TrEMBL record:
Domain ABC transmembrane type-1 residues, every copy: 15-208
Compartments, record wording: Cell membrane
Major subcellular location class: membrane
Organismal lineage: Archaea, Methanobacteriati, Methanobacteriota, Stenosarchaea group, Methanomicrobia
InterPro entries: AA_ABC_transptr_permease_3TM (IPR010065), ArtM/GltK/GlnP/TcyL/YhdX-like (IPR043429), MetI-like (IPR000515), MetI-like_sf (IPR035906)
Protein name (Swiss-Prot/TrEMBL): L-cystine transport system permease protein YecS
Family: Belongs to the binding-protein-dependent transport system permease family.
Molecular function terms from GO: transmembrane transporter activity
Top-level division of the source organism's lineage: Archaea
Gene3D superfamilies tied to this protein: MetI-like
GO cellular component, one term: ATP-binding cassette (ABC) transporter complex
Membrane topology note: Multi-pass membrane protein
Organism in which the protein naturally occurs: Methanorbis furvi
Keywords, sorted A to Z: Amino-acid transport, Cell membrane, Membrane, Transmembrane, Transmembrane helix, Transport
Length: 228
């Protein structure tokens, strides 16, 4: 037991660097998923039928395959075909971000469809173009309405980030395993890794809930946010 605690203390800076890599991986992937998710949503709700069909196929593809399969597909097959040496971290961001976009797009889509059609008609009657109506009336409301569902993407991406271990991203789990191979103390080190993940999850959700309470729309059913 004493040897295990010593191993945790001595490897703490190395593990904290891995935690920072994990947070960077989650943060960038969440941003990629957010931007791509909005584009997919607008295409699926307001685009022509061929765009809607393309988005349906995209969502079906990325939601239908496990993360580990997508990582292997992109890291060992698709990106090598380009002839460029893509870092493992960048591949993980692309895979996690694009997969998150598939899920986020459906969250945003549900929020947009929950807004009464009369708001679009009223905006158009005031002389706004369709795009102006979407940008200034529909989209701001839908983003606020979708926050309760969207907030689930953070813990999902946080747990999924550990899968990047399989392609060698130096995130928290990878570094924990490396320390274990040197010290031979799996129990205490894996427990430390688990505790860090729990704290990251808890802290992130607390922050998101504060944002949710601040931007909620009165009367739309997301007024009550439970304090963690």
């Amino acid at each position: 037991m004493f040897e295990g605690i010593t191993a945790v203390v001595e490897s703490a800076p190395y593990l904290l660097e891995g935690m920072c890599v994990t947070l960077a991986l989650v943060g960038v992937s969440l941003f990629v998923g957010f931007v791509c998710g909005i584009v997919l949503t607008l295409g699926q709700v307001y685009g022509p039928w061929i765009i809607k069909r393309a988005v349906d196929i995209y969502v079906w593809f990325f939601r239908g395959l496990p993360n580990i399969v997508l990582l292997f597909l992109f890291y060992f097959a698709l990106f090598p075909m380009t002839g460029f040496d893509i870092p493992a971290f960048a591949v993980a961001v692309v895979v996690l971000g694009l997969r998150s976009a598939a899920y986020q797009s459906q969250i945003f889509r549900g929020a947009i469809l929950s807004i009464a059609d009369g708001q679009m008609l009223a905006a158009r009657s005031l002389g706004m173009t369709r795009w102006q109506s979407i940008k200034t009336i529909i989209l701001p409301q839908s983003l606020r309405l979708s926050l309760p569902g969207w907030s689930n993407e953070y813990p999902v991406l946080l747990t999924d980030s550990a899968v990047a271990y399989v392609i060698g991203v130096a995130e928290l789990l990878t570094r924990t395993s490396q320390v274990i191979s040197k010290t031979g103390e799996p129990m205490i080190l894996y427990l430390t890794c688990a505790i860090i993940f729990i704290l990251l999850n808890y802290g992130g959700m607390m922050l998101i809930q504060r944002v949710e309470k601040k931007v909620r729309i009165p009367g739309f059913g997301n007024n009550e946010v439970t304090e963690t």
